[in-house]
Amino acid sequence: MSIEIENVTKRFGTFVALDDVSLSIPAGRLTALLGPSGGGKSTLLRIIAGLESADSGRVEIEGVDATHLTPQKRNVGFVFQHYAAFKHLSVARNVAFGLEIRKRPKEEIRARVQELLALVHLEQFADRLPAQLSGGQRQRMALARALAVEPTVLLLDEPFGALDAKVRKELRDWLRRLHDEVHVTTIFVTHDQEEALEVADEIVVINDGRIEQIGSPDELYDQPANDFVMRFLGPVTQVGDRLVRPHDLELDTGDPDPDAVSGQISRVTRVGFEIRVEVTAGEQVILVSLTRAQFVPLGVGVGDTVHVRVPEGINTTVVVPKPRVGAAA
């Protein structure tokens, strides 16, 4: 169900973790809280779960004011980065734990555990201990345990952060498919831009305790609200006072367009199918990303003069100068 967060503020001593945050999370969606470390995303997740209390503001879950409810009464499932497994219990008993403490009938527990282990592809490991599983398998076990009690909301705090890149990729593909099957409202915290762009229906960018922008992955990537969002979601380069994606730029050697920036190629790097060309124009180094098919016909190399152009219709963001330390406000 939907979650409404209204004017939530949270401080830890003099540090402001969340500063008057308001947010509406639609029911049944997979929403990513994305931002740098220390930006406030995990604090917001823990406030939704009831593991932290806000200094001010309100949290509503499924139309109910949950601001002062205990975690047990919020009906949320929570998955931590480091699994928090019961080491002495089997995989099946770990998944069953929440149902057992709720004193559900044994036959109901058995059927539910079997259903969930099949859902996360761990049925053959039911009798193993967590230590006998791989990292990816333990994370799937943790997700099954969180889903066992049929939570209204599933909260994931950097669930794949402790895993290697290949396993992370496999698990985020799996999480997307799982969400499409169970349709539980899901919020996950990540600082991995690719993970958020690939998995989420909606992304909330949080920085310094404030929301910078909310939107679909396409909206945030193509129409960033400011230079922070543009820099944080994907590669950027600066042309004059504008930020632009390197792959949106055009490179040519003919007569310069009036709006083009001329410079010399200072470096050419091939990374698989991509050719990264660094063009030095005065004090700026502009990065242009081309395919091999685009670069080779230009017939240029290091030291050659080229012209960099931002095509019409390409979204750019103007760089906002940061105030100097000690400057008057």
TrEMBL record:
Residues 3-233 form the ABC transporter domain. SMART domains: AAA (SM00382). The keyword Lipid biosynthesis does not apply. It comes from the Bacteria. CDD domains: ABC_CysA_sulfate_importer (cd03296). It holds the Pfam family ABC_tran. Keywords: ATP-binding, Cell membrane, Membrane, Nucleotide-binding, Sulfate transport, Translocase, Transport. InterPro entries: AAA+_ATPase (IPR003593), ABC_SmlMolc_Importer (IPR050093), ABC_transporter-like_ATP-bd (IPR003439), ABC_transporter-like_CS (IPR017871), Mo/tungstate-bd_C_term_dom (IPR008995), P-loop_NTPase (IPR027417), Sulph_transpt1 (IPR005666), TOBE-like (IPR024765). The keyword Metal-binding does not apply. This is TOBE-like domain-containing protein. It comes from Luedemannella flava.
